[in-house]
Amino acid sequence: MMNEIKFYEPNDAFGFLSNLASAPMIVEGLEWPSSEHYYQAQKFNDPQLQRLVRQAPSGDEAFRLSREYAQCVKPDWLQVREQVMRYAVAEKFGQNPYYAYQLVATGEQVLTEHSHKDSFWGDGGDGRGRNELGKILMAVRSDLSEQEPYNLITYVDSAKLPTQFGMFQMNGFIERATGKEHLALVYGKLDSSEPVLIRLHSECLTGDALFSARCDCGFQLAKAMQNIVEKGSGVILYLRQEGRGIGLLNKIRAYHLQDDGADTVEANERLGFAADMRDYTFCKGMLGHLNIDSVNLMTNNPRKVNALIKAGINIAERVPLQEGNNPHNEGYLKTKADKLGHMFAAEFIN
C-alpha cells in the first residue's frame, strides 16, 4: 500500500510514532520519559510499582517490568486500556511539538504499528491485526491538523539544493490560508538548544533572479546565504510575497510610478495597497516543523521583528544585513529608512 506508513522500533524511519520513542511528558506533576512508561505504569494501583516503571531506563524496560508484575495489574485494566492509551498518545504529541509537526506531516497516510507480537495495538505482522495504536495516532493527527500552529502550513517534501555558497536542504511548504508555496532552505545541522541564524526573505524575482539593482533584495539574499554557510548552520525562509505582498504585476505597475517620481511607499498607495501587505504568521509553522524555537534574525526591518514576536517566535538577536547600496537604489533605501523605519547605519545610506 503506497499510502501506508509502517512503524515499530523507535530508531527506525518514522520511529517517533512508537510509544518507545523518547518523548518526555508531565502528567499530574510527574515527568514520564515516554508514553510507554506512562501507559505501562497505569496498569497498577500501587504507587511504588508506578514509580518503579516510571524510573525505568527505557520504554522496553518499562514494558518488561509490567510483565514481571503481571499478577499486580488492576482488575479493570482491559476495560480502561484504550482510554489510557488515547490519553498517553495525545499528551505525548501535545507536549512535544516537534513530534506533533512530524505527525501532521504524514498527511492522510495510514499509520500502522507493524508488530508480529501484537495483533491488538499492532497489525500482528501480517496486516490482520486491529492496529488500535495506529487508529489512535491518526485520530490525534486529525485533531492536531485543525489546531494552530499545525494548521498554518502543510509540509510537502525536501531535496538537496547545491548552490554557489554550499549545499542546502530545500523544504517545501504550502501556506494553508492562501495556498502559496514557500521554501525553507536549511544549511548544516541545526541545534534546537540555541538560537538559529535565519533570514525571512520575501521573493523578489527582479532582484533575486534578474539581478535588478533598483532594490537590495538579491544582494541581501546572497549575503544571508553566505553568512549562514560561514556560521555552519542556519535557515532561509524564502517566502512567496512578491512586491511586499502585492504580486509581480502590481510591482511592475509600482515601478512605473516610481519611474515617474513616486517613492516605493507612494507607488503602492496610489495603486490602492498598504506600504507593506505581508503576513508572517505562517512562518511559525515552518520554523516549528524544523524544531526551531529561538532565532537570530537577519533583517533591518522592525516590522519583521514585531510580526515574528506577535506570532510567538522568540527573537534572541537582530542581525543587521546591509548590502547592495548603489546609485540605482539610493532613493529606495532612503524611503525604507524614512517611511518604513528600516534600521540602517548612517554611512550605509548617505
3D structure, described in words:
InterPro entries: GTP_cyclohydro_II, NADAR, RibA, RibA-like_sf, YbiA-like_sf. The active site is at 276 (proton acceptor), 278 (nucleophile). Catalyzes the conversion of GTP to 2,5-diamino-6-ribosylamino-4(3H)-pyrimidinone 5'-phosphate (DARP), formate and pyrophosphate. Keywords: GTP-binding, Hydrolase, Metal-binding, Nucleotide-binding, Riboflavin biosynthesis, Zinc. With 350 residues, this protein is an alpha/beta fold. Helix content is 39%, strand content 18%. The strands form 3 sheets. Strands 5-6-7-9-8-10-11 form a 7-stranded mixed sheet, with helices on both faces. It has a two-stranded parallel sheet with strand order 1-4. It has a two-stranded antiparallel ribbon with strand order 2-3. Strand 6 (167-175) and strand 7 form a beta hairpin. The chain is elongated, with a radius of gyration of 25 Å.
Short description:
39% of the residues lie in helices and 18% in strands. The chain contains 14 helices and eleven strands. Zn(2+) binds at residues 204, 215, 217.
What is the topology?
Layout: E1 4-7, E2 25-27, E3 30-32, H1 35-41, H2 47-54, H3 59-68, H4 77-95, H5 97-104, E4 110-113, H6 132-144, E5 153-162, E6 167-175, E7 181-187, E8 196-202, H7 205-209, H8 217-231, E9 234-239, H9 248-259, H10 264-270, H11 283-289, E10 294-298, H12 302-310, E11 314-319, H13 330-340, H14 346-349
Parallel strand pairs: 1-4, 8-9, 8-10, 10-11
Antiparallel strand pairs: 2-3, 5-6, 6-7, 7-9
